[in-house]
Model the fold of this input.
Amino acid sequence: MLLSELEWETIRLSLRIALAALGVILIPGIALAWLLARRNFPGKALLDGVIHLPLVLPPVVVGYLLLVALGRNSWLGHWLEQLGGWHLPFTWQGAAVAGGVMALPLLVRAARLSFEAVDPGLEAAARTLGAGRLRVFFTITLPLALPGVLAGLVLAFARALSEFGATITFASNIPGETRILPLALYTLIQSPGGEYAAARLCVIAIVIALMAMVLSERLTRAAQKRIQGRDR
Amino acid sequence: MSGGRFEIDIAHRQGAFQLEVSASLPVQGVSALFGASGSGKTSLLRLLCGLDRPTKGRIVLGDSVLVDTAARRWVPPQQRRMGVVFQEPRLFPHYRVAGNLRYAMTRESRGRWDELVALLGIEPLLKRWPATLSGGEARRVAIARALLSSPQLLLLDEPFSGLDEDRHGELVRYLQRIMNEWQLPMVIISHSPQDVVALADHLVVLKSGSKMLEGALETLFAESQLSEITPFASLSILSGRVAAPATDCQPAQVILDDNQRMPVRGSHAPVGTRVRLMMERRELRLMDGKASHTLMAEVEDIFPALGEGGHPEAGLMNVTVRLAGQRLSLCATADYIRQLGLAPGSRCRVGPGVPAVVRVG
Done:
C-alpha cells in the first residue's frame, strides 16, 4: 500500500467529518442564502453579519463560543443531551459542527450570489402558471442557481476539511475521534522525528484539495450547460 | 366563464409613481389597456395577476374577490388562474419547449395539448431549448404555456413588442383564433392603436397612472371620444358582415350596418362573418356625386385641421361624417369643401378606398 494505516484513518476521519459538516449546514445554509437574496426583513443586516463572523473572527474564538453555547453546562447543550444523548464537545460530531460553522459563510455567500442572479421574472411567471412558493424554489430557483450552490458546497467542504482552531478548541485533538488532517499534521510537527510523516500528510492534503477543485469545476460546468439550455 | 365583470378599483404607490384606477371590464372578449410608456399599464397588470399588492383597493373577477385591502383579502398569484404572457417570453431556460408547456399543464388542459400545439404551430419546436427560439416562436410558446395553465382570463403585456411585421400579423391572427375558438376573456396591454383596433372590444386608456377614458371600442369611436387621444385621432373604423368572398378577379365585399356595400382586402372569412375595418384619415376622400364606389354619409362637423404644435394648417379642414353608425374622420381642402357645398347636416359621398379587414369575429 502507498499509504500507512494511520494515514488512511486520518483521511477517512477527515472526509467523514467534512461531509457531516456539509450535512449540518446544507439546508440552513441554502435557506439563509435564499432569505438574504429574496426577502427583506428587519434585522437582515445583523443576520448577514452574524453569518459572516466566522470569516473575520479568530477560529479559536468561534470554538470557544461553541463550547460556551453547546457545552454540557449551557441550556442548549443540556437540551441536546436530553433530546438524544448528543454530546458535542470533544466528539467527532462536535468537530463536524465546528467545521460547519466555519464553512457556513462560504456556502451562504456563493449560494446567495447565484440566487440573486436568477431572474425574478421567471419565478413570477412560474407563479402565474399555478406553482406555489416551494414548487417555484425547487423547479426554477434552485436548478438555475445550482452551479453557484455547488461551487459554494465544494468551498465549504474544503473549509471544513482544513479547519484547525475552532476544531481543536471545541472538539479537541483526540486520535481517531477528532484528529482530522490539519490536527494530525500539527501533532506530527510537534513530535520529534515526525518531519517525514508530516511531509507525506502535506502531499495528501494537496491531492485532496486538487481533487475537490477538479470535481467542483466539472459539476459547475455540467450544471451551467444545463441551465443555459442548448443542445449538447 | 363569461358574463360577469372584472371590477378593478385600486390605488397603488410605487416610489414616486401613483397609480389610481377604477375600471369595470367585461369578462368576455378582449379588453385593451392603452397608454404611453410610463402610464402604469404594466404596474396595473402586476396588480391584476397578484405579483404586487395594491396599497388600497379591491379587485373582483366575476364572483370571486381577488383583492380587498379593507377586508384583508388577498389571493396569491398561483391561485388566481390568470394566464400571463409577459413582455419578454420568460421561458424557463432549463426546460425544453415541451417541458415548459408541461410545467403549466393542469388536469383540465391535458386534453387540449394537441389542439393548442396545432393552433399555435409549435409542434416542430417541442424538442428545442428556449435559447434557440426566435422572438416570434418564443412568444407563441409563452402564449401556449399560459393557455395550458387553464386560465379563466388571459393577460398579455405588449405581446407584439420586438416582432417584425410578418410575425406581428401572424400573432394577431393566432390571438384572434384563440379569441374566437376558445371564448377566453383577454386583457391586452398595448401602446399601438392599430393593435387595439385589431383585437379589442373594450378599451381603457391610461395616462400617468390614472384612467382617462373607458368604454366599448366601437362606441368610443362612434362618439368621437378618441379624437382627443392623438394616436387614435386619425383612425376610423367601420363594422359589417362579409357579403361576398374574394374571387380570382374580385375583392371580397362587406355589407355595412346601413346596407351599403364596399370592397375590402385581407378577408378570408366566410360570408356572414362579422368583420371590423380600419381606415387612416389620409385613405378617405370626399367625392362628388358622380364618382362610383363611394358610400353615402352625412356631414357632422367641419373644423380647421391642426398641424404640428396645434397650429391650424392653412386652407385645410377636418371633416367628420356619420356612416353606418360610425363616425369617420377625413381631411380636405377648404376650397374643395366649398365647391361640393358641404355644411354640417348635408349629405356627402365618401371614397373609402379598399380598407383592410383588421378583425374577424
